[in-house]
Specification:
- With 670 residues, this protein is an alpha+beta fold.
- The protein folds into 3 domains: 160 residues, no CATH class; 439 residues, Up-down Bundle (Growth Hormone, Chain: A); 43 residues, no CATH class.
- Helix content is 54%, strand content 10%.
- It contains 22 helices and 12 strands.
- The strands form 3 sheets. It has a 5-stranded antiparallel sheet. The chain has a 4-stranded mixed sheet with strand order 9-11-10-12.
- Helix 7 runs antiparallel to helix 12.
- It is globular and about 75 Å long.
- The chain starts with 14 loop residues before the first strand and ends with a strand.
Length: 670
């Protein structure tokens, strides 16, 4: 680390101002650095004791600091120049910056080179402004140097930074403890959802016959049971859009989740009371089931759309940090890897909750359906109480009343202007088109915001392929259960094997996070999101091939002669596919979405499950004997082709980490 500059050698005759040129033309009567849009980005400096001391403001919104649209400039101001702000006349300025937070000692000594009013060392000052919420103090030493020397030094400095960051190991950050409270409500909701949906197939398919090996209630047959099960799944995931709109536009995520929990509880009360033996024998079972499905599905959607982004929002760091470990190793703490880890463990918690059918299907078999459904009701009551208990600890993003409308209007402007680049307010101003669109005259409509909407739509284009995956995934919850009923059970409930999926995921997710992904990063293997999703499609396709072959042997063997546990690989293969497709999809839905539309983009991801469920409803005619071999085989082909097309479409444009990415320097970890 360089020695600090001699304060006596610093000239107080000139102040340095770091101002943001966000590619927006300032309003009339406002200087570039003092325009209303740039006011929170400026760092003013004042001479203090022979040196120049600058104070960065509190961290503004991420959108304001979008790296693609943030172009700081160095501006000089003499003490006697009043409020006039003019770009530096000197050809080059050599600037040494010492930066540190108020509560710590200085931890960085970095030489930055400013070659003109538009080019400078973005990879430090901009990084610090984005990565810390606290106020920073900066000691700045400036002097004019020949342009050629400055250019040479800047090129050498940039090259050294690139090589330094390129070779460093990247690691995820620690997960925020407050996120665990939000995971509790997701754990409870998933335990409730899977706990009540696990017995659905038997509840609808088989007739009410106490003492039978196969428990039942309504006796509507496999086709109706599969159709109603798919309807429930369709409605539960389609209603995520309703929950997202309510959260992003009106209530915010916290209040939306609370309202959804209340609706959920009402639906479960209906289900429990209409699943008693007396209600079933009096014909109230089917009507009560449908009413419960509609109500519970609405509650599921409200929770599902909001709990994922709210959990991820508890992690506030948004920029890579160069960190020195106790061992002396320098690493980059990558927020992208942290978000990836958070969603992996989020989905791990989901699958802990998905083990609840281990209890409910056995209660269904050995006691009754109403008691099996009472257990999920108790679980959701407990998890909602824990969620409310932590209400003062959460990071809450307030709702933006016009968020969805603004996004739609932005897309409309992009269509009319023939591209998102032309829809940027800076470009609209240059072309004289800004007055054509009322939104373009609003302060919230920035170049960064247009880029956010464009990025969110790109992730939505990826989601177009997901229904083909979820058609395969959906077979676990209906047709594979019925397939198990055609096999030799030997005392095993036919709907018990579906629990192999969450069990496999509870083992596989930590294996990926602790062993596989760190090993890939160690050897610089880029296992990017597109490749992960492609791998998931392939696992799902192989699972359907296995189910197809198994169904063929069931048809060509004596009744109930094949042991039910031979079906297990289908569930395990689907579990492997989930670890790559669903977790990565959740990650993309959060990281690629505008901050005020995260619930909506997350809901669009979950909506792909609803689309898949609707397709499965249409396939109800072939979801029965003797067409099951052809159905499983067709799904295997569809999954394989969709995965290949996804890879071809998105692999060329996949996101890679760039060594030019701005990195914040931190001190040694404690």
């Amino acid at each position: 680390m360089h020695e600090q500059p001699d304060k006596a050698s610093l000239s107080p005759s000139k102040e340095i101002l770091l101002a943001a040129d966000s590619e927006r033309r300032p309003r009339r009567g406002h200087s570039p650095a003092r325009s209303r849009r740039g006011r929170s980005l400026a760092a003013f400096s004042r001479p203090i004791g022979g040196s120049t001391k600058a104070v960065l403001p509190d961290r503004p919104s991420d959108a304001a600091y979008d790296s693609a649209n943030f172009h700081p400039r160095v501006i000089s101001r003499s003490p006697d120049s009043g409020d006039a702000l003019e770009p530096c006349a000197a050809s080059c300025i050599l600037t040494r910056v010492l930066v540190g937070p108020k509560e710590r000692s200085l931890f960085v000594d970095k030489t930055l080179f400013v070659l003109s009013t538009e080019q400078w060392g973005l990879n430090l000052v901009n990084s610090i402004a984005r990565a810390r919420r606290s106020t920073f103090s900066m000691e700045i030493e400036s002097k004019t140097v020949p342009a050629a020397d400055a250019a040479s030094m800047a090129e050498h400095d940039a090259k050294n930074d690139t090589e330094q960051f390129r070779g460093l190991r990247r690691i995820p950050d620690k997960l925020p403890a407050v996120a665990l409270l939000i995971l509790v409500v997701e754990l409870g909701e998933r335990a409730t959802y899977f706990g009540l949906s696990g017995p659905f197939q038997n509840y609808i398919n088989n007739p009410y016959a106490p003492g039978s090996d196969l428990p039942g209630a309504l006796g509507k047959g496999q086709a109706v049971a599969t159709a109603l099960g798919n309807f429930f799944k369709f409605w539960a995931y389609a209603s995520t859009v309703i929950g997202a709109i309510i959260a992003d536009q009106y209530l915010g995520k916290y209040k939306a989740i609370l309202c959804a929990c209340s609706v959920y509880i009402v639906g479960l009360v209906i289900l429990v009371t209409t699943a008693t033996p007396s209600a079933i024998t009096h014909g109230a079972g089917l009507g009560g089931l449908i009413a419960a499905m509609v109500t519970i599905g609405l509650g599921t959607g409200g929770i599902k759309a909001n709990v994922t982004p709210m959990c991820a929002e508890q992690y506030q760091n948004s920029h890579p940090v160069l960190k020195t470990l106790k061992s002396g190793e320098q690493v980059i703490v990558d927020p992208d890897l942290t978000v990836q880890r958070l969603f992996m463990w989020f989905y791990w918690v989901v699958n802990i909750g998905a083990l609840s059918p281990l209890i409910t299907v056995n209660v269904e078999k050995h006691h009754s359906f109403w008691l099996a459904y009472l257990i999920p009701l108790i679980i959701i009551l407990i998890s909602a109480s824990v969620f409310v208990w932590g209400r003062k600890k959460y990071v809450r993003v307030p709702p933006m009343g016009s968020a969805i409308l603004d996004a739609c209007r932005t897309v409309s402007i992009a269509i009319k202007e023939k591209g998102f680049y032309n829809a940027r307010p800076s470009v609209l101003l240059e072309r004289g088109h800004a007055d054509k669109y009322p939104l373009a005259r609003q302060e919230r409509y920035t170049d960064a915001y247009v880029g956010d909407v464009q990025r969110g739509l790109k992730s939505c284009k990826m989601f177009l392929f997901f229904p083909f995956y979820f058609i395969c995934w959906n077979q676990m919850w209906n047709n594979l259960i019925s397939q198990a009923g055609q096999m030799a059970l030997h005392g095993t409930p036919n709907d018990l094997l579906q629990n192999l999926d969450p069990i496999a995921l509870c083992i596989f997710i930590p294996f990926l996070d602790v062993i596989v992904y760190p090993l890939l990063r160690k050897y610089k293997i880029d296992f990017d999101p597109v490749t992960r999703i492609f791998m998931g499609f392939m696992f799902a396709s192989v699972a359907m091939v296995y189910a197809c072959v198994l169904q063929h042997y069931i048809y060509n063997s004596p009744p109930k002669s094949i042991h039910v546990w031979i079906q297990a690989p289908s569930y395990v293969l689907v579990a492997f596919s989930e670890a790559f497709v669903i977790i990565t999809g959740l990650e993309l839905a959060f990281t690629q979405a505008p901050k005020n539309l995260r619930s909506v983009i997350s809901a669009l991801f979950w909506l792909t499950i609803a689309v898949a469920a609707a397709i499965c409803i249409a396939l109800g005619a072939v979801s029965q004997d003797p067409y099951l071999v052809w159905m499983y085989g067709s799904l295997a082909i569809v999954g394989f082709v969709a995965g290949c097309l996804f890879y071809v479409c998105f692999f060329p444009g996949r996101r890679k980490w760039s060594p030019r990415e701005e990195v914040v320097i931190e001190g040694t970890s404690q």
